[in-house]
């Protein structure tokens, strides 16, 4: 039996096999437009941020990773907070957020042009008031001091009675003032009592000092003790 004559291809058949002078592409490849001697990789969809390597497979560019069969996404070494990685190591904030001054990978919510007054911006155009404050009805970015913490209305009365909600700040002050007043009063009492006494010194072997309620009674007291009287 005679062997079949093999016809060679005019040029090298890339990514395929030459059969009887015709370039037949490998699986996942197809002829290049206008060039039947060359087979190029084939993907049913375009590879985003990558290139088709044939058989519906994509190879991502450097610093990109495959997240879907035909989609390559950029890689950010630090996770983007309230944003997304739009390019290698570059975060882009979601709508209503802006870059933080402290970190390029963190986005913080925006509340108006001046941010929240007496509050914290927790979401785009959403303020959370600090303790003791409430949101203003006319300005959503302003928090006002809560009058309920200071002004408490009494039931059955048209007047508003003031009551301080921070009495614990005044209790130590009141205690200190009371203590000082008590000390002053005690000193005054002791001083008034001392005015009714006269101090006399007696020279004796023991060098004793005697306190007498009245200077006129000094002689009588010393006489009872059988001691010499010193003229004062």
From TrEMBL:
Q: Determine the domain of life of the protein's source.
A: Eukaryota
Keywords recorded for this protein, A-Z: Membrane, Transmembrane, Transmembrane helix
Residue ranges of domain EGF-like in the record? 8-40, 42-73, 75-108, 110-144
Q: Which residues cross the membrane?
A: 166-186
Q: Which PANTHER family match?
A: EATER-RELATED, FI01909P-RELATED
UniProt name for this protein: EGF-like domain-containing protein
Q: Name the species this protein comes from.
A: Anopheles triannulatus
